[in-house]
Each structure stands twice: as structure tokens, then as C-alpha cells.
Specification:
The protein has 457 residues and is of the alpha/beta class. The protein contains 15 helices and 16 strands.
């Protein structure tokens, strides 16, 4: 496993370090003002008052020279940090040979597909086919099309709290109001079922766990007459729900859902775009459940500094798809492929998957202990370096913290040099998802500042 000293050398020293008296500083404010004149604010961060100028490892500088610790990793993208020396070297070497080829075979995309097969989870490992896209939304679009084609069925079952992208078919699966309002009507044939969000579960549990109730309900929908859920091609599920609030169900949920899929004849598709690539202490988060998926979608951390996403599917399923039926002109660009392979090598050689599990448990335990003296924290949950902190107005009623409070917290963190991104169905969950290369020192500095900010709210 890589040493803390080696990890420290990948980032700027002395973070966080704030130079301007406020955020944004004058130079960043100028960039933000110009951006509104020329760029759509429909992007995820909208008009958030932060400007990225220089990135190194887990640290970022803005145009004014303010130095931040980024515990969002570019929304879970930069698994090995920004501008890793080995990634830069791979980009330089590959760019001299071949960048864009075509939607044909190339040496690098072929090597990447083979490497992905070798790290796929049981059920897919070395017996799978990979289809490449440029984004997570694109990967989900294709997974939906592929599932319908190979099964000859139409319906897709997803879950409350889901985020699977914001394109056409993928947006129909995503449940966040901000991503749906005004953009409908959506693709038909989509059914949503409860996800095991125990902290806010709306149904009585009796003597069962939240996971058992949700899993049994999926079985009821798929395998009971007169539910109108009679033509399901795939159940698409996040093994650890991301935008919906960083919710990590116990294995029992996935075991029951997989069994229900097999009984119905539907495919089990694990959306690993945010929770995959080592983030949860396993290379793929579905491995925690011991369930073998029929397909996996990936993205974000696989490519890191360059776009890389796709679908991994069972080889027998891929053989049912017609050659040339789903073109992707820019997919698996040779430089992106070289970078993705380098990311995989760094993650494996540095022992970052195991380290994510260890450091994540350390931070989770610390936050749970600290929450006892911070009534604003309703629950701390997560797995590996994917940790959610749900903020509330009242711990007894569990009323979510309002948006004014959340903005005060997020801006308080930013003013102290910490980049943290909220999520959750009520927008009241802070999430820790740093690069897997974050040092223990920087991780605990970020937690120190977070706890101080929460204590002052």
C-alpha cells in the first residue's frame, strides 16, 4: 500500500489556505460573471461561486490563489486525484501516437476492454463484453436499449431516489424533481419501487428489515398477477444510492431483488457510475452484496481526468446485439483509454481499494461519534470513501435541514477551503467522496473544519 508521504506529494502542501477575505474573490467573481453571459447554468453546479483554475491531487486553486481541499473529487470522478504524474505521462505518450481513431477497433480500446474484463465482478469477470460511451448518462441509455433488445421486453424497474442520468430514457429512471420538472413527458414503461432508505422509510416494517420489505415488494411487483409489471426487461439499481442521499443497503435487499429478477426473467443491472471503481472498499460496490449482475454501467472514476464510461454485459447477452447498431463516434478515444488503464493500475498497485475501506471506516466512526454532540446531524452512513451526513432541523422529528441552512454550511466550508457537495432527496445530505489518494491528514483536516462549521450553524 502506498505511503502517506507518497500520497502527500501528489497534492499541493498547506491546504486549505485562503487568501481573499471572501469567496468568490475578485478574479473568480469576474470569471463567474462572464460565464453567465456565455454558458448555460443548467449544468449541475449552476451558479455555484467556485472557479477551478489549477488542480493537483486532492487540492484545487481558484484564480485568486485560494487553495482548497476537494472532498468531492469532481463529483466522484478523480479517483486518483487530478493531474496524477502517471496519468499525465500516459496522456503525453499516447497523444504522440493516436488520439481519435474512429468507431473501429484500436489497440488501446481493445487493451482497455480486456483489462476491464479482468477486474469485473464475479459473473462477468473474463466472460463479458464492454461497450464504451463518454458519460454515465450515455451508459444508462445504452444499458436500457440493450436490455430491451436482448430480452424482447419493454418495461424497466428503477427505485425511488434514483439518479441514472438526465438524457431521454435515463431521465425517465431518475426521480429528482429538479431533473424532471418541465422536461417531460418521459419514456413510458418505467416503474419505480421503494429503495431501502431506512432513515426515512414510509412503510411499516413489522419484524422485517427495510431491505427485506423492499426486496419482497420487488418480488411482488415482478411475480404477482395484476400488478401491471408484466413485461420487465431489467431492474436497474444503484448498489449504494448516490444523488438520492448516499444510502448503503444491506446485502439482503440485492439478494432478494436478484432472485426476483431470475424468477421473472428480467436482467439485474447495477449502476456503478458513482459507487464503482474502488470507492466503497471493493472495486465494484455490488460485490458487497455477493450478487452477480447481468450488466454494469460505469463512468466517473474509471476515466478520471478524461471522459470514460460504458456498459459491461454478459458475453451471451452481447452476442444477441446486432453489429453496428449503436454507434458512438468518440467513445474509447485512445488517450482516454490509456488514462483509464493507468487509473486502474494506480488503484490496484497503490492498494487504494483496501485503503478506501479502511480510511472510510475510520472517518465514518469519527463522524458517528461526533454526531452525538451535534443535534444538526440526523444520521451518518456510508461505505468506504462514500459517506453521507444527513442534516436535520430536529433529531426527534427528523425534519430535514432547510436550504438556507444547507447553503450556510456549504458556503461556510468553502470559505474555510473545503469543497463539499450536497445531495439527497431533500437536498440536506453532505457527502464525503474524496479522491482515493487523499491523505489521512487532509481527510481529517476536512472533517475538523466540517465539525466546526456544523457546530456554528
Amino acid at each position: 500500500m502506498i505511503s502517506e508521504q507518497e500520497l502527500a506529494e501528489l497534492s499541493f502542501a498547506d491546504a486549505p489556505k485562503m487568501i481573499t477575505g471572501s469567496v468568490p474573490g475578485p478574479k473568480a467573481a469576474e470569471v463567474l460573471a462572464e460565464a453567465r453571459e456565455h454558458e448555460s447554468m443548467t449544468r449541475g453546479a449552476g451558479g455555484f461561486p467556485l472557479v477551478f483554475d489549477v488542480g493537483k491531487g486532492v487540492t484545487v486553486k481558484d484564480p485568486d490563489g485560494n487553495l482548497y481541499i476537494d472532498v468531492s473529487a469532481g463529483v466522484g470522478v478523480n479517483s486518483v486525484g487530478r493531474s496524477h504524474p502517471r496519468v499525465i505521462k500516459a496522456m503525453e505518450e499516447q497523444s504522440k501516437v493516436l488520439m481519435h481513431g474512429s468507431d473501429c477497433s484500436s489497440t488501446r480500446r481493445g487493451e482497455l476492454a480486456k483489462k476491464i474484463a479482468s477486474i469485473a465482478p464475479p459473473g462477468l469477470r473474463n466472460d463479458c463484453i464492454t461497450y464504451f460511451t463518454q458519460s454515465g448518462s450515455g451508459a444508462l441509455e445504452c444499458a436500457i436499449k440493450f436490455a430491451r433488445t436482448v430480452t424482447g421486453r419493454n418495461q424497466i424497474l428503477a427505485f425511488h431516489g434514483a439518479y441514472h442520468g438526465v438524457w431521454a430514457a435515463s431521465n425517465a429512471l431518475t426521480t429528482g424533481d429538479q431533473y424532471r420538472k418541465g422536461y417531460g413527458p418521459f419514456m413510458g414503461g418505467v416503474i419505480h419501487a421503494p429503495y431501502p432508505y431506512a432513515y426515512r422509510f414510509p412503510l411499516p416494517l413489522g419484524d422485517k428489515s427495510c431491505e427485506e420489505v423492499c426486496g419482497d415488494y420487488v418480488d411482488y411487483l415482478l411475480n404477482t398477477p395484476y400488478t401491471a409489471v408484466d413485461d420487465v426487461a431489467a431492474v436497474i439499481v444503484e448498489p449504494l444510492q448516490g444523488e438520492g442521499g448516499y444510502i448503503p443497503p444491506a446485502p439482503e435487499f440485492f439478494i432478494r431483488v436478484k432472485a426476483a429478477c431470475e424468477k421473472h426473467g428480467a436482467l439485474f443491472v447495477a449502476d456503478e457510475v458513482q459507487a464503482g471503481t474502488g470507492r466503497t472498499g471493493k472495486m465494484w460496490s455490488i460485490e458487497h452484496a455477493g450478487v452477480e449482475p447481468d450488466m454494469i454501467t460505469f463512468g466517473k472514476g474509471m476515466g478520471g481526468d478524461l471522459p470514460m464510461a460504458g456498459v459491461i454485459m454478459r458475453k451471451d447477452l452481447a452476442q444477441k446485439l446486432e453489429d453496428g447498431s449503436q454507434p458512438q463516434t468518440f467513445a474509447a478515444n485512445s488517450v482516454s483509454a490509456a488514462v483509464a488503464m493507468t487509473n486502474i493500475d494506480i488503484i490496484n498497485e497503490y492498494g487504494l481499494v483496501e485503503r478506501a475501506g479502511q480510511l472510510g471506516k475510520e472517518v465514518l466512526d469519527r463522524l458517528q461519534a461526533a454526531s452525538e454532540n451535534l443535534p444538526i446531524i440526523g444520521e451518518v452512513r456510508g461505505r468506504g470513501l462514500m459517506i453521507g451526513i444527513e442534516l436535520v432541523k430536529d433529531r426527534q422529528t427528523r425534519e430535514p435541514a432547510d436550504q438556507d441552512t444547507m447553503m450556510k454550511v456549504v458556503m461556510g466550508l468553502l470559505a474555510n477551503g473545503i469543497i463539499m457537495v450536497p445531495c439527497g432527496r431533500n437536498g440536506n445530505v453532505l457527502r464525503l467522496m474524496p479522491s482515493l489518494t487523499i491523505t489521512r491528514d487532509y481527510m481529517h483536516k476536512a472533517v475538523d473544519i466540517l465539525l466546526d462549521v456544523l457546530a456554528d450553524v
